[in-house]
Write a structure and sequence with these properties.
The protein has helices spanning 3-18, 21-24, 27-31, 44-55, 75-80, 92-106, 112-118, 122-125, 132-231, 243-249, 255-262; strands spanning 40-41, 128-129, 234-236, 278-280. It is mostly helical. The protein has two domains: 3-161, Orthogonal Bundle (Lysozyme), CATH 1.10.530; 227-280, LysM domain (Membrane-bound Lytic Murein Transglycosylase D, Chain A), CATH 3.10.350. The strands form two sheets. Strands 1-2 form a two-stranded antiparallel ribbon. Strands 3-4 form a two-stranded antiparallel ribbon. The radius of gyration is 59 Å and the shape is rod-shaped. Mean pLDDT is 82; it is low at 1-39.
Length: 284
């Protein structure tokens, strides 16, 4: 396996944590570092050893897969610690300066595989001296980094809260609309049921009135018929009588035919009547 292959495998595995600074840094974690530059830092030799593991010591390398420079910054982590442009385009001193801020914030865990392989500890991070002229800019950049992250976190939180509030408002409005629709549908069903009940009651009342009227008419007709029968004059058939003879005898208007029609209920054959039958004489 050639040297480039070995470098790529090591760097790819190690730089996972390096890329996480933007997502992993919090105001609380940054505040724990403090806002003044440390009196001590890792030696240049320590950074050279780490760069040898990460990039074969090539400080101006661009691997083409999102990682840059000797200690393999991602662009987001580089910018998060105040770097400008691309890491591999900066000087070795500038890359180490930014790496010091990253190490100060995340520890050697920013380079998990290589720092473990090299056995780097906190003692290595404090083995060198920091020039007083460099300490202040580092502190200012650390402060700026924390402030940028704090502002980003606050903006993200506000955005999330606004989206949550909007979602809750939309859900409340939807629930209200659905409830209103349900209430309207229930009211319409009740109104339809009430109208159907009223129509059924009206139909029943009308049917009852019609039946009562029909019954009254039938009773009236029956009473009238009975009254006519009661008022009608009757005769009793004697031996030798016939409808023709009786019609002539009682001068029935219309003759025997009228007499027959008036007595169809009891005379089935106009030529046959029986002694003792009571016949009704038609009214003139």
């Amino acid at each position: 396996m050639d040297t480039m292959t070995l470098f790529t495998t090591s760097a790819t595995r190690s730089r996972r944590a390096t890329a996480s600074i933007v997502a992993g840094m919090t105001l609380a974690g940054a505040a724990a570092v403090g806002f003044s530059a440390p009196a001590q830092a890792a030696t240049v030799d320590t950074w050279d050893r780490l760069a040898e593991c990460e990039s074969n010591g090539t400080w101006d390398i661009n691997t083409g897969n999102g990682f840059y420079g000797g200690v393999q910054f991602t662009l987001s982590s580089w910018q998060a610690v105040g770097g400008e442009g691309y890491p591999h385009q900066a000087s070795k001193a500038e890359q180490i300066k930014r790496a010091e801020i990253l190490q100060d914030l995340q520890g050697w865990g920013a380079w998990p595989l290589c720092s473990q392989k090299l056995g780097l500890t906190q003692a290595d991070a404090e083995a060198g001296e920091v020039d007083a002229t460099e300490a202040a800019p580092v502190a200012v950049e650390r402060t700026a980094t924390v402030q940028r992250q704090s502002a980003a976190d606050e903006a993200a939180a506000e955005q999330a809260a606004a989206e949550q509030a909007a979602a809750e408002q939309a859900a409340a409005e939807q629930a209200a609309a659905e409830q209103a629709a349900a209430d309207q549908a229930a009211a319409e069903r009740w109104a339809a049921k009430q109208a159907a009940a009223e129509q059924a009651a009206a139909d029943k009342a009308a049917a009852q009135r019609a039946a009562a009227a029909e019954k009254a008419a039938a009773q009236k007709a029956a009473a009238a018929e009975q009254a006519v029968v009661a008022e009608a004059e009757t005769i009793v058939v004697k031996s030798g009588d016939s409808l023709w003879k009786l019609a002539n005898e009682y001068e029935v208007e219309g003759g025997w035919t009228a007499l027959y029609e008036a007595n169809k209920g009891i005379v089935s054959d106009a030529a046959v009547i029986y002694v003792g039958q009571e016949l009704v004489l038609p009214q003139a």
